[in-house]
Amino acid sequence: MRYAYLVVFILSVTVIFTVSCTKLYKADKIDLKIYSPDDSALFYNGRKTRSLKVVSKDGVTLYHKTYEQAVPTPDYIPSDIYSMMNYAGEHLLKCSRFTVKDHELVKGYGILQDGLNDCFVLDMAQQLTAGYGDVPDRRLILLSTASELMRKYGREKLYHAFLETAYMQSDIWGIQTAANQYFGKGIDACEPSEKLWLMSAMTLGFLPEEHRDDFYNRMAVFAGEMVKRGKQGYDQPYLNIDYDTPKDVYEYPEYTSLVLSEMEDRGIAPVDELTIRTGISIESMQAAQDAISERREKLPEGAAALMAVVNFEDGTIEAMAATDKFRYRTMQMKRQIGSTFKPMVYLTAFSNGFTPNELIVDKQYTYGNYGRTYTPANFEDFYMGTIPLRKGLVFSLNNATIRLAKITGLKKVADTAENMGMEYDIKPYLSMPLGVFPLTALNLAKVYGTLGAYGVRKDTGFIMDVTKADGEPFFYGKKADERVVPESAAFQVLHIMRDVARIGTAKYSGLIKGSAAKTGTTDEYKDAWTASVFPPYAAVAWVGYDDNRSMGENGTGGGFAAPIIAAFQRRILNGEAKIDFQVPKGVVLKNVDTYRGFVIGKGCNSRYGYSEAFSADNIPADCVVSRVEPPDAP
Fold it and tell me: Nearest-CA neighbor of 491 among 358, 346, 625, 316?
């Protein structure tokens, strides 16, 4: 009886153990359906070619870099490519292929083993299951995913997807892109030797120049396998195969770096095949540099010189040059601008109703100035007495100009200068009209560019426009043009400045007839400036010593700086004998008496007259002498 109880007990324990094991087995078997990753990403190629080409205004490629190449892979891929992939996937590449141990792992899951020894298939499954890294059954999920990919798509479709995005070195993605770049043809047109080359590059991850022997050994292995499989054309030795690698262009780095820097400032990233057309002209750059070289022997020994040129019609910087360090000198070095500021005074006056023919007294004035007195002097203590306003600008008369600025409003003048683009916190001091503050040459050239554009301020830079591969414009953060002063006032100032080169402070400089110009010479002849407008250019030249010492009494803007611009004009304007400015609508030209300033008409003839520009809504009456202030004003 005791033995009967023992048998019953043993049988009970066995049943319980068996049931428990069965439950445990069922509990351990995972539901692979919950680990079915979305495989659509394998068949989506979001890559596209990203490149940047920078071209000068005169058609020179300054920079060309391909950051990434990718073109669609054709539906048809030669079968021998697939054969080489199959061989490489199962024999050459390293991956965790299906093992004996995996047989036990996949039991009961219906996982087919086809493709589980192919590293290409396993790699694609690996991509899809990367998010399951912490799951204990990661290996089972991987094998299941690989098997499902084979069942769902088949080997060739998976291979095609892999070839679409395969990295082929040199920032090239995809077998078709590689065939185009390296051999100048599509994959379907490649010779057997070129296919061997492409597959070797894809499976090794480097080009022949890195490890020549290894590369050509891999090609030989592929060729031998293709011969075994009966593929035609693979029984020849393949050595020294010619291929083209992408070649970046980086010409004129001193100019190109400026464009790339502006790109970064404006937030332009190479997200497409972009072409940047710049305002930089190699011809103009060379002309500016040659102009400085030509005049250098006429300058004091050791003096530096520079030139900055903007094209105000298209709103670009076209040329910069210097005796040395042109980037620093034109864009960073700041020097007092002297009388090149004076046009801002007259521009403000004409914008506020004054006319160029009104009379002002040019004499030495004394002003109260915060408990002190301020008594400015004219150059060489030369005073012209009662004159039309235009002569104050033509002959750069300090006292007439300061007087006009005070009457017009010093704050208004400062505001005009800043609106025109002067990058300085200009204070409305009595000395302000004499340009006692510093600017860079490029900033001053941009200001005169606004004047040349008849008062329209442009977001002037090196970049003219940006287009995509299809020719469509690529929009970026460039500000819209803005009118900052009346068109008529800007033209009136330019009309007067033409006499600076004809009879004024730049008379003997060689500037082409009709050029609008303004010279500037700072105290003790430390800085010699000239700014000139001759459509479509606004050019600024400067000469001086780095240590701010005097250049001597000959160191004037008209004597040193203006001839540099004249030399540039001769090189760039193709022999033009005269500069013309188009008279805008709303401007009327009238004959005016040279000395008394009245408009010549019936009853008031004059032996000495000139053509003056007036705003159509502010034309003085004939024969009337008009003054800025009463003749007895203190």
Answer: 346
User: Taking each helix axis from N to C terminus, what angle separates 398-408 and 342-351, rounded to the nearest 10 degrees?
Assistant: 40
> Could you write out the three-class secondary structure of 282-300?
HHHHHHHHHHHHHHHCCCC
- 75 CB contacts (<8 Å, ≥6 apart)? 160
Distances (CA, A) of 99 to 88, 92, 113, 117: 18, 17, 10, 9
pLDDT in tens, 60-106: 999 999 988 888 899 999 999 999 999 999 999 999 999 999 988 99
Identify the bridge partners of residue 533 per DSSP, sorted by sequence position. Answer: 516, 538
pLDDT, tens digit (0-9, with 9 covering 90-100), for 247-295 = 889 989 999 999 999 999 999 988 889 999 999 999 999 999 999 999 9
Contact 306, 545 (CB under 8 A): no
Q: How far is it, in rounded angstroms, from Cα 42 to Cα 157?
A: 10
Q: How many helices (H) and strands (E) does the chain have?
A: 19, 21
Instruction: Please state, as a whole number, how many other Cβ atoms lie within 10 Å of the Cβ of residue 421.
Output: 21
Q: At what angle do helices 79-87 and 192-204 cross, to 10 degrees?
A: 40
List helix spans (H) across 166-304. 175-183, 192-204, 212-228, 253-265, 282-296
Distance CA 399, CA 387 (A): 12
According to the model, what pLDDT value does residue 28 have? Answer: 62
State the pLDDT at residue 17. Answer: 40
Rounded CA-CA distance 361/330 in Å is 37
pLDDT tens for each residue of 3-53: 444 333 444 434 444 444 433 344 467 888 778 888 888 887 778 889 999
The structure tokens listed for 217 are: 């050994």
Quote the CA–CA distance of 440 and 545 in Å, as a whole number. Answer: 15
What is the Cα 124 distance to its own chain's centre?
A: 40
Cβ contacts of 102 within 8 Å, gap of 6 or more: 116, 139, 143
Q: What is the pLDDT of residues 442-472, one digit of tens each?
A: 999 999 999 999 999 999 999 999 999 888 9
